[in-house]
Design goal:
single chain; alpha+beta; Aminopeptidase; seven-stranded mixed β-sheet; 3 helices; 7 strands; globular
Length: about 160
């Protein structure tokens, strides 16, 4: 039986978190060509404008997700990922709810995200959480490897 999942904001530059980022890259690069991979690297996820959440199962990092604070009342979801053995436990939903609650507490009114259209599980989760397809937002441009979604947050 699995203990309850825990989640907290953590520094990215930890070996098991770097491993999650590498697994996320491998997942993306197995589905899309390099020009369709837009994952933010460890350095980019370590900035002051990023809050990086890690979900753990019995102490082991099984998933992650981050918000990039845009400073204009919006945020961008980055790097939502759950390792294979962590799937089916509600980890991705837990990260999303945690990040959305954090965004509301900071006065954010909208979260945007970019994902790949072949990431059907993620697209389904985002839709179930109220995200709707939209056009590209900066710094992205329309391309066949990206699906853009947004959600207006309520207090």
């Amino acid at each position: 039986m699995t203990a309850e999942l825990s989640i907290s904001i953590e520094p990215v530059n930890q070996p098991e978190i770097v491993e999650l980022i590498e697994l996320s890259d491998a997942y993306s690069l197995a589905r899309y060509p390099a020009e369709g991979h837009f994952g933010t690297d460890v350095e980019g996820l370590s900035g002051d404008d990023i809050s990086f959440a890690v979900v753990r199962d019995e102490g082991r990092a099984i998933g992650c997700g981050a918000l990039k604070w845009n400073g204009d009342g919006t945020a961008e979801l980055k790097r939502l990922f759950v390792r294979d053995e962590g799937r089916g436990k509600g980890a991705a939903r837990k990260v999303m709810v945690y990040l959305e609650d954090m965004a509301r507490a900071r006065g954010v009114t909208r979260i945007d995200l970019e994902t790949g259209p072949l990431n059907t599980e993620a697209v389904g989760l985002y839709g179930a959480l109220g995200y709707a397809e939209c056009g590209p937002f900066p710094p992205y441009e329309a391309n066949p490897y990206s699906l853009f979604m947004t959600k207006e947050l309520r207090a």
